[in-house]
Structures are given as C-alpha cells and as structure tokens.
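Q: Okay, next protein. This is Acetyl-CoA C-acetyltransferase from Bailinhaonella thermotolerans. I've checked the sequence twice, so it should be correct. Can you predict the 3D structure?
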Amino acid sequence: MAEAYIVDAVRTPVGRRGGGLSGEHPADLGAHVLTALMTRTGVDPAAVEDVIFGCVDAVGPQAGDIARTCWLAAGLPEEVPGVTVDRQCGSSQQAVHFAAQAVLSGTTDLVVAGGVQNMSMIPIAYASRGATEPLGLTEGPYTGSKGWQRRYGGQDVSQFRGAEMIAEQWDISRERMEAFAYESHRRAIEAIDSGRFDREIAPYGDVAHDEGPRRDTSPEKMAGLKTLMEGGRLTAAVSSQISDGAAALLIASEAAVRAHGLTPRARIHHVSARGEDPIRMLSAPIPATAHALKKTGMSIGDLDAIEINEAFASVVLAWLKETGADPAKVNPNGGAIALGHPLGATGARLMTTLLHELERTGGRYGLQTMCEGGGQANVTIIERL
C-alpha cells in the first residue's frame, strides 16, 4: 500500500497586524519558508514535482498564483510548477491533502505543500470582492445568486454571526470563552518561553518569535471589551488575531524517501473534508471529526495531540463538548486567539506545530481540524514515526 510521509515542516514566526512581518511581500514570506525547507531537508529542489500553497484573497501582491511566485522568489528551479488553493481558512491544510493524495495516487513522489498570508497588507473582509468594485461589480459570494437566495434567502452570512450562533446553540457563556482565551495566551507564552517553537520556526530577519501572545492580558481586561455584535457574547478577546506568516512541508512517497536518502518524521494516516450548514458556517469540524474517526476506526482517546483552529473560542468549546476530547491535549501550546491566524498559512502552521508537539511528547497520533468559510472543515490525522 502506498504511503505519504512528512519529511520536514517549517514556518515563519506569526507576525501580528502591523508587526515585524507586515511590510514583507507575501512572495518573500513564502520564499523564506521554501528556502528553509530545502536547506533543512537537503533535497535537490529540482526533484520537487509541484508546489501547492494555500492563500485567501489572492489579490494584489498575493495574486498571480502565489505558490509559483514564492518558489521563483526563493531562486529555486524554474522547471518546478506551483498551484494555489483556496478553501478559505483551511487552504493550506487542503494543500497538504492534495500533496498527500498526489503521492498516494502514485503519480507524484515529492511535493511541497504550504501557505502564505499577509493580512496586514491584504485585509480580510472579502478583499477579493472589493477589488472588483472599480469594474462596477459589488455583489459578493452570498448576494446576487438566484440559486443561493432560493436556498438560503437573504440571511446575514458572516463568521461573526456563525460564532455567535454556535455560542448560543451550545450554551457557551462569554465568561467561559474568556477563560478559554486567557488559557490560550498562557499556553502560548509558556511554549515560547520554554523554546518549544524554536525548532519549527525559521526566524525572519529580526522576528524570531510569534508576536501575538499578550503578556499583559487579564480576565479583567477581557471582561471590559465591547461585544462584536449587538447583544452578542463574543469580543475581540475570544477571536483569532489578524496575522502575517507562511509555512511549508515536504511530502514524499516511499520511493522518494529511498531515492533521496530522506528520514520521514510522520506518516499521513488520514485526510478528509466535510461540509455543513453554511449559515452557522463554523461548526463543521464537529461532523468532520466524527467522519474521520469512523472512517479510520479510531476513537478520540487514541489521539495524543490535537490542533483545532481557534477562529473563535466558541468553535473549539462546542467541538470539545461534542467530542469529549481531553482539553489538555487540545492546542497544548495555545492557538490562534494567542498565536494568530494568517488565513492561508494557518493550516500548514498547525500541521507544523502538531508534528513537533508529537515529537516533543512522544505521542503517536495527532489530529488537525479547522472551520472554514462556506461551512466546511478539513481533518488530517498523522502518525509520528
């Protein structure tokens, strides 16, 4: 049976909005991790058969197939192609899936998967939609479509509303979300101070550590913030941070491992993606996780480490309620509330951190999942070797 292996994984520090990476061209951020990956693995870059990158809002400096421009900006061989994927926040996790599937199919032996996003430069809020306004096109993905209107009507579709709907449906209080967010910062600061991230990060200039965690935050400060929506429960404190960064992994077949003398660090055990209610939008990790566990014959207790993206605290807390997972194993080094969420890069960042956490703790299986626009979620299970 064919196997797909993770040979190595590397990321930039995650920069906060307006921080140390904010002025860097996205192609240069991506080039940085590609150069680091090739250097660390020692593989001949010309042997890479494809570069698959995730990126959301691929406009301006992120346009023109950013996977390809990152590779070229790194000075790597021109004969290696690239392709860019958009599955919203799960884009670079999907890039890993596509790379693994290419290897598992037997058609490809060596693929780079990753992602990049500079949110300081290209703000969220459907930047790609706004880019068409000079052409007189103002309709977004949820307006103007007769088919969408017939199916879902004129409902407000936003991640903020979705996160609020989850908090209400699963009865998650503001206080519980703030306690979760505070713990995310505490765990992230502990991880940084103890050097847990050092091996996975390729420092970018003077930026050597993640910039997001707030050492001066407190439950009292969180309690004083205004809610994001009138009458809602969520605030900025329980939401992921706008961030900049990039990450990349080398995925190899067994034949490539032998041919290039590589030492794989993990085996990709399972990949899948599922969809759910696009109005609630952010709850798809729940059925997606159930689907993955059923398909693999595993239980939640078989997993030694779990990374679920902290788009909002309500997303993770609802998932914990439904799965019964051990909270100590979930985002043990903090999550996007503290570390940040550079949209197109986060999937690969989480996978990089998950791999290193399994190695640090001696765990065997790790699961990664994340909510995505349109009511979708990817799930990846890896096995440490």
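A: Here is a summary of the prediction. The CA atoms of residues 362 and 384 lie 8 Å apart. The first helix runs from residue 26 to 41.
Q: Noted. On to the next one.
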